[in-house]
């Protein structure tokens, strides 16, 4: 499922036309939220960035 969202985020900017800077800023803010603040139960209650960081430091 995470790879689906990775593809969605990667293609988000290619598939959308942003008519204003505000629209672009909202899109970037959502991706930042998705990676840094959204907590996933599947990832042991961590955000995707926190989970990857933890995995790399304890790996």
UniProtKB/TrEMBL annotation:
Source superkingdom: Bacteria
One matching Pfam family: rve_2
GO biological process, one term: DNA integration
Domain (Integrase catalytic): residue spans on this chain: 2-55
Protein name from the UniProt record: Mobile element protein
Organism for this UniProt entry: Halomonas citrativorans
């Amino acid at each position: 499922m995470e790879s689906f969202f990775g593809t969605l985020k990667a293609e988000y900017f290619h598939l959308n036309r942003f008519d204003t800077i505000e629209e672009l800023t909202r899109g970037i803010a959502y991706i930042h939220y998705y990676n840094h603040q959204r907590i996933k139960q599947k990832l042991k209650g961590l955000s995707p960035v926190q989970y990857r960081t933890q995995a790399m430091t304890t790996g």
